[in-house]
Specification:
Layout lengths: L18 H12 L21 H11 L26 H4 L3 E7 L11 H5 L3 E5 L8 H4 L5 E5 H5 L15 E5 L8 H5 L6 H11 L5 E3 L3 H12 L12 H10 L2 E7 L21 H4 L5 H11 L4 H7 L1 E5 L7
Parallel strand pairs: 1-2, 1-6, 2-3, 3-4, 4-5
Antiparallel strand pairs: 6-7
The structure holds cytidine-5'-monophosphate.
The site of cytidine-5'-monophosphate has 15 residues, from helix 10 and helix 11.
């Protein structure tokens, strides 16, 4: 291991962060905007550390990638419910043989991973991440784009008009109350996901566009918390974590790029923006640090793959023998 530099340590803790970041994380750990209720052993000591295969089976068993359909209340009572896809995303898409999940991390810059990423049957990208001008490093294929409600609502992303969003399948999500009660969420979304969804659908009626069931956020959150030794932020997981689990339910093999930083690790936030902040990689609002611990423990590839290519290998749920 001597020639190999440091790769992500699966016991990363907020105590290993710098003073400023530690404070930010602690503040979020103390806040409970979404009404998280701790159940069971809930992380804090006592719970045995599960192996990678055990964690994978737990995830497969306890997490369901569901999307909103027109029959669900309160949407079924609203005229625009017919704009929602009638079937689940998981019954409309895949199964794919191999999939790439492209984090938007700054360490993708100068990676030369574009060809490798595009060689996958399906490629998932996030939010406003572009391919034009960055093909060498991130490829050009986009099968699915997972977007958060903040991107959908903000003026600078021009969500309704930018061509960035008009190819591939769109999937949107918004931080919901921990109860995942659809009516409570509908009345109190973080950003106006539903008005933006209706507007987008009217402008692009033929593009497939799903909304994640908010249960998924908190099911994944619970898997993270139950397997960590300290309290994590009581906020939903990052788009990166949601997208990784989404692809695990559609694909036989999932390669996640630069979620666990390679030797190119940098404070550059996104590969497509000149903005530097370590919180993009380590998390502030999202329990990103702990998401990365979990992914490191589930990784079936080598540390060298992480170090040189920023690449993690995860099995699809279908392929798992639990
Ligand atoms: O910033 P954004 O959410 O659009 O990025 C997509 C995902 O990529 C994040 O949710 C996070 O999981 C991952 N990411 C990362 N390190 C960065 C930037 C993004 O792990 N520096």
């Amino acid at each position: 291991n001597g020639l190999l530099g440091e790769v992500w340590d699966d016991e990363m803790s907020s105590s290993m962060l710098g003073t400023r970041m530690k404070k930010v994380v602690q503040n979020y750990q103390a806040m409970n905007k979404y009404g998280v209720e701790l159940s069971g052993p809930g992380g804090v000591s006592g719970t045995p550390k599960l192996s990678g295969p055990e964690l994978l089976c737990q995830l497969k068993d306890k997490v369901e990638v569901a999307t909103l359909t027109p029959d669900l209340q309160p949407f079924s009572l609203l005229p625009w419910a017919t704009q929602l896809p009638p079937q689940q995303l998981t019954s409309d898409l895949g199964p794919y043989k191999s999939c790439a999940v492209v984090s938007s991390a700054g360490s993708l810059r100068y990676s030369g991973l574009g060809k490798e990423i595009d060689s996958h049957e399906a490629v998932l990208r996030f939010n406003a991440a572009p391919t034009t001008g960055y093909e060498k490093d991130v490829g050009s294929k986009t099968t699915i784009r997972l977007i958060n409600s903040q991107v959908m609502a903000s003026d600078d992303h021009r969500f309704l008009s930018s061509s960035l969003y008009s190819s591939g399948v769109l999937v949107a999500w918004d931080p919901a109350p921990f109860s995942a009660d659809l009516t409570k969420w509908f009345n109190r979304t973080d950003y106006p996901i539903f008005t933006q969804y209706q507007r987008y659908r009217r402008l692009h009626p033929l593009q497939p566009f799903y909304i994640l069931h908010p249960r998924l956020e908190w099911q994944i959150w619970q898997r993270i918390q139950d397997n960590m030794a300290e309290p994590i932020q009581k906020n939903p997981p990052s788009s990166g974590m949601l997208g990784t689990v989404l692809m695990m339910s559609l694909c036989e093999v999932v390669h996640v790029y630069e979620f666990l930083p390679s030797r190119r690790k940098t404070e550059l936030c996104h590969y497509y923006q000149r903005f530097y902040d370590a919180a993009c990689t380590l998390g502030a609002y999202h329990p990103l640090l702990y998401e990365k611990n979990l992914v490191k423990r589930m990784n079936q590839g080598s540390d060298r793959d992480i170090y040189t290519n920023g690449r993690v290998t995860l099995p699809g749920f279908r392929k798992l023998n639990c």
